[in-house]
Amino acid sequence: EAVSRQELDFAFLTSPIIETKELAVREIADEPLFVIGPASCHQAKTDAELAQMMPFISFNKKSWLGQQISARLQSRGIFVQEAMELDSIDTIETLVEQGFGVSIVPQRLLAKPLSNQLTKIPFCEPAESRKLVLVSNAHNPNHQLAEVIERLSSGLTKHQ
Questions:
Q1: pTM attached to this predicted model
Q2: 106 and which of 14, 31, 59, 100 could share a cystine (Cβ 3.0–4.6 Å)?
Q3: For the chain, first and last CA: distance in Å?
Q4: What is the percentage of the chain residues whose pLDDT exceeds 70?
């Protein structure tokens, strides 16, 4: 909304974003989703098996990521034993690493790789992902700034 009102020149958001004629939306990166569990779950052979091994720590279902994960689990008939719902991916990763449960999280673009202390299996085949987008006002005279940021951002994805 702030970009539409030209209060901000641009914003990085996770998709989906409702495209309008006022907004230019450029995809910056795909962040692959992984089912994660503590190292003790290393015997899991599939994402579904790992997701059901322990209590499930879900990402906030009011967010797009939480809705995306929940819908995909449901469409695949994967029933998890939900233990808690959190807003912080970092906190979820820490709780899983400490053995409190399993979860599904993205490998974030600028974050360190998921810990080696985690059992990690790509979520779905082909792997589901969270999309990062750059949103700018289509009528903003500073549209060149968004184009430069897009080029810089695409350089980041190539170095990951």
A1: 0.83
A2: 31
A3: 30
A4: 86
